[in-house]
Write a structure and sequence with these properties.
CATH topology: Rossmann fold
CATH superfamily: P-loop containing nucleotide triphosphate hydrolases
Largest sheet: 3 strands, parallel
Order of helices and strands: EHHHEHEHHEHHE
Oligomer: single chain
Shape: globular
Number of helices: 8
Radius of gyration: 18 Å
Distance between the termini: 43 Å
Length: 195
């Protein structure tokens, strides 16, 4: 008896770039509180879930949560009545505050600083601003990473190379990840939420 393997259908995700849309406020005050972010995230998730032609089978949020206060608010989700945090029965994406997978792109301070200064999005980008932001990352975001690492859902990816090397690194890490294979490729939990 001959068996054939089937290649899983690629899944698409609605991507929400949290910090891109609120960059001005972030530039001037550092980490934002949940009071600042939750209404934006609520609307972005709602838009991703209820788009006219739903093609996404999951949601990927880039850059959130970045501190423990944001993580705690995300875990208690203040919009439960309007936008419940539970998988949908039809397999479409629904918000789920407990992400299936968290991707953590590891970059050395030296590489992060060089990239930050090279991109120079605006005249406010400076060595001093980088040092402040990196100190905030070390003080706040690393604690969030540890929470997700403890839950067993964090995938660390070395992102110190070129763009091509980084794409290859993330692809390799995802292919090696049993969690990625189970949740995304096999689709064992229906809708998906990635951070």
């Amino acid at each position: 008896m001959e068996t054939t393997s089937t290649i899983p259908t690629p899944r698409s995700f609605a991507v929400i770039f949290v910090l891109v849309r609120i960059q001005d406020k972030l530039d001037n005050q550092g980490f934002l509180t949940s009071d600042d972010l939750n209404p934006f995230i609520h609307q972005a998730i709602k838009d991703a879930i209820y788009q006219d032609e739903p093609k996404s089978q999951g949601i990927l949020i880039d850059g959130f949560p970045r501190c423990t206060e944001q993580l705690e608010s995300f875990n208690t989700w203040p919009f439960q009545d309007e936008l419940p945090l539970a998988p949908s029965s039809d397999g479409r994406a629904r918000a789920n505050a407990k992400p299936d997978i968290v991707l953590c792109f590891q970059v050395t301070k030296q590489n992060a600083k060089a990239r930050y200064l090279a991109r120079a999005r605006d005249s406010n980008d400076s060595k001093e601003k980088f040092e402040r932001r990196f100190a905030e990352y070390e003080a706040e975001t690393m604690a969030v990473e540890e929470v997700y690492r403890h839950r067993g859902i964090l995938i660390d990816v070395d992102a110190n190379g070129t763009k091509e090397e980084n794409v290859n690194n993330v692809t390799k890490k995802l292919e090696e990840s049993g969690l990625w294979q189970k949740i995304i490729v096999e689709g064992s939990t229906g809708a998906h939420f990635l951070v």
